[in-house]
Amino acid sequence: MHSPLSFRETGSGQPLIILHGLFGSAINWRRIGDMLKSHWRVVMPDLPNHGNSPWSDDMSYPAQAQVLKNFIIRHDLSNPVIVGHSMGGKVAMALALSGQCLINRLVIVDIAPVSYPHSHLELIQAMRTLPLSQISTRHDADQLLAPAIPTSGLRQFLLQNLIIENRQARWRINLPIIEQQMALLTGFPFNEENFDLPTLFLHGSKSDYLSAADLPIIKKFFPQAVTLSIDDASHWLHVERPNEVARAIQGFLNKSTD
Questions:
Q1: To which H or E segment does residue 159 belong?
Q2: Domains in the chain: how many in total?
Q3: Is 9 helix (H, G, I), strand (E, B) or coil?
Q4: Which residues on neighbouring strands pair with residue 15, listed in sequence order?
Q5: For 104-150, what is each residue's pLDDT tens digit?
Q6: What ranges make up the beta strands (E) of 46-113?
Q7: For 133, phi and psi rounded to 5 degrees?
Q8: Which run of H or of E encompasses 228?
Q9: For residue 2, is it within any domain?
Q10: Which domain covers residue 54, as residue numbers?
């Protein structure tokens, strides 16, 4: 996992790294990156096995944290703020808790430092069984995926990972490895470490990924953590409420420098 990550960059100033979630890519955070670029050098990498970044056989959080550390060094992103959503939030937490890299502050979006029971394996199975040889347009793919995944918005999100070139379709994410290592992705491998710097846990009011029951363990790992809810938002709050999410991130960063 030494190959460089693909990334998008905008703005200037102190580095702020945004990490997408499972099945996502840097492009999912482009709008919020544009909202923050007047204050920050916003860098949005594609994590391993996602987007245009290289594939890897190891998706454990310590391994992904090492890749992120190498990325920070390669691109001179010293002492960054790191924003991470879902899987990307766990990668950010893993790097912070490892103590291997100086991090300024953290914003963790709709995820907690705990293991989760849901695995998304049904989504992977639907994607892996899609008959790619029958697909020459995105509309074809959408229709074929609809019986297994009836929610249009979710299908459109997943189909951002489908590449169609010369009327031939292929997945750009490493579905076999993601499926094989799903237990690592839904888990959390740390026990005693902590990151004692300002950390915001931002979550959707309609999401079940972060609850009051998670607060003691959040405080154990992140003693300076605060939480903030975005009203009328689910796990995909950055898509549903981008203005509110950008304001919450900037507000926390402004306040935590006082």
A1: helix 152-159
A2: 2
A3: strand
A4: 41
A5: 999 999 999 999 987 789 999 999 999 999 999 999 999 999 999 99
A6: 81-85, 105-109
A7: -70, -15
A8: strand 225-230
A9: no
A10: 7-116+187-255
